[in-house]
Amino acid sequence: xxxxxxxxxxxxxxxxxxxxxxxxxxxxxxxxxxxxxxxxxxxxxxxxxxxxxxxxxxxxxxxxxxxxxxxxxxxxxxxxxxxxxxxxxxxxxxxxxxxxxxxxxxxxxxxxxxxxxxxxxxxxxxxxxxxxxxxxxxxxxxxxxxxxxxxxxxxxxxxxxxxxxxxxxxxxxxxxxxxxxxxxxxxxxxxxxxxxx
Length: 197
Description:
alpha+beta, 11 strands, elongated, 3-stranded antiparallel sheet, Pvc16_N, 25% helix, 197 residues, DUF4255 domain-containing protein, 6-stranded mixed sheet, STM4215-like
């Protein structure tokens, strides 16, 4: 659910920006979420629009939480640490005229260059479950680009790839309680309290 809300937020913000750039008051979406190619083989992105496609999800391991316990009044509660995700989003311009597609991709790059961090301070409409979204432009080699478009099952169109970091996925389910140590027994000698060894 957090992924869908993140992509919907970006779709709405980028759509508003592109309409501003075009001076367009039309209600038709200029940015859509969806597959580049549908399961039936048809192109999934509407004509004269920019499509956003999720092409990969990776776990952010560098900043992974290492604390499986949460301190409480009477001890600790055990839980599974949160997972931080990075999303790879492909922005694809599908226009009848090639120069219009290039113009649209240029606007996408300009949009994220001027606002690569989205947080609730600047964007109150950002879902409360999201801390912030940070966009980094990703450069692909010709070989990587060829593999990606082959995997998508589509002919190449003007596009740009961004890495979005880091979404936090956390289930608040408690796995159990861990009671505090009240006494320590060393070789038959009993000691009370929280003393150190």
